[in-house]
Specification:
The chain is elongated and about 105 Å long. The chain contains one helix and no strands. The chain is mainly α.
Amino acid sequence: MSFRGLFAALSAAAFLFLVFFFAASLLVALAVAVPVFLLIGAIFGRRPRLVVVRMRPDPFEGRDQRFGNPHFGEAGRQPRPAGPVIDHEP
């Protein structure tokens, strides 16, 4: 093997070592940084506001029960699908 071939092989090996070393160091840095940033965000992040929900009186109370109460998902008259209306009742 000539010196030129030996030098090319050593140069390629050194280049690949540097590339893989850089990639591995990036992976280690991300593996450390992501949990640290999440922890910092959890400690110093904006606190969620407490939302107080009050029950309002039911506006449908006492209404004809055939229609149901849409606020509470009661069964009742449902909107019909689009298309021709076929009425079988007289």
